[in-house]
Amino acid sequence: MYDTSLWLGGKEFKSRLIVGTGKYPSFESMREALEASGAEIVTVAVRRVNLPGQGESLLDFIDTKRYTLLPNTAGCYTADEAIRTCYLAREAGLGTLVKLEVIGDSRTLFPDVEGLLEATRRLAREGFSVLPYTNDDPVTCKKLEDAGAAAVMPLGAPIGSGLGIRNPYNIKLILEAVTVPVIVDAGVGTASDAAIAMELGCDGVLMNTAIASAKDPVAMATAMKLAVEAGRLAFKAGRIGKKLYATASSPIEGVPDWSTS
Amino acid sequence: MRVTVNGKPMEIPDGLTVEGLLDHLRIRREYTAVALNREVTARSTYAETRLHDGDTVEIVHPMGGG
């Protein structure tokens, strides 16, 4: 079936699954899981190097010609910290497509909406393609779009929680509220969660823990690839309406008469 | 002189540049970025940017994350 591509930061992507690179048991299992996921975009954190010198490095295991790197601002609690982290990422050669996080609370890792909007506005003005991780709130998502976000990334549930898409109705409202791509970021626990996000009409799904912390990350990465594709296809195919009572699938006419009288 | 690099206080030769510090610490250049006293240092200025006593340096690179 014909499908359009996902466009982010002026680049075209066939895969609608974006995966993280954290929490894997080893760099080798990460490399295999990335391969199995079919993802073309992978997120990375920006952190201090070990001193002195650097040992094994994450990017020794990621083919940067093949994958687009999406640096995040995880761990930033203010717009200023997040903006400086994006500058560092750009200077490090990680590009200008950024996953913007401005965290408001360490227990839930819910976003600080005020800081998120300010950072989105400033980074977009400076030429970054900003993908903000945000609450599943249509009003905030619209404001982020107006602030120059290249996409909006509402959470399905708290980061790393695996609780799935807790508010599919809000995700639907977000899809109506904005014209930029909508990517569900965080909360996915298993394949059906990813399929649900895509069936709602989302443009993509971003996940890390669900794959990296699965018993078999490579198998889960494969499941997620298939789920995102299946959910996308089901959305494009157009699902039937929900009805309370049965509608027979077989003809009502022509049933043989087995009555004995 | 004394500077703080990635939170660690250290003694380095006087007049060292950012470039010199990266060599001194055997830091790979690829996918690495430096902030000096909270401001990101452009790669093109590493060789001419001299460090001063009390400076705070952050040297970062990509790590696994979601």
Could you write a compact summary of the structure shown?
The complex is a heterodimer of chains A (261) and B (66). Helices cover 34% and strands 15% of the residues of chain A. Chain A has 261 residues and is α/β, with parallel strands linked by helices.
Describe this structure in words.
Chain A has helices at 27-37, 79-91, 113-125, 138-146, 168-177, 191-199, 209-212, 217-237, and strands at 6-8, 11-13, 17-19, 41-48, 68-71, 97-100, 129-134, 153-154, 183-185, 204-207. Chain A is of the alpha/beta class and 261 residues long. In chain A, strand 6 (97-100), helix 3 and strand 7 form a beta-alpha-beta unit. In chain A, helix 4 runs parallel beside helix 5 and helix 6 (191-199) packs parallel to helix 8. Chain B has 66 residues and is mostly beta strands. Helix content of chain B is 11%, strand content 36%. Chain B has one helix at 18-24; strands at residues 2-5, 8-11, 33-36, 39-41, 56-64. A five-stranded mixed beta sheet of chain B has the order 2-1-5-3-4, with no helix packed on it. The longest helix of chain B has 7 residues, at 18-24. The radius of gyration of chain B is 12 Å and the shape is globular. Classes of the chains: A alpha/beta (261), B mainly beta (66). Chain A binds chain B through residues 20-24, 30, 43-49, 51-54, 57-59, 69, 71-72, 74, 84, 87-89, 91-94, 159-160, 186, 206-209, 212, and chain B through 5-8, 25-28, 30-35, 38, 40-43, 58-66.
Task: Set out the fold topology.
The complex is a heterodimer of chains A (261) and B (66).
Chain A lengths: L5 E3 L2 E3 L3 E3 L7 H11 L3 E8 L19 E4 L7 H13 L5 E4 L12 H13 L3 E6 L3 H9 L6 E2 L13 H10 L5 E3 L5 H9 L4 E4 L1 H4 L4 H21 L24
Parallel strand pairs in A: 3-4, 3-10, 4-5, 6-7, 7-8, 9-10
Antiparallel strand pairs in A: 1-2
Chain B lengths: L1 E4 L2 E4 L6 H7 L8 E4 L2 E3 L14 E9 L2
Parallel strand pairs in B: 1-5
Antiparallel strand pairs in B: 1-2, 3-4, 3-5
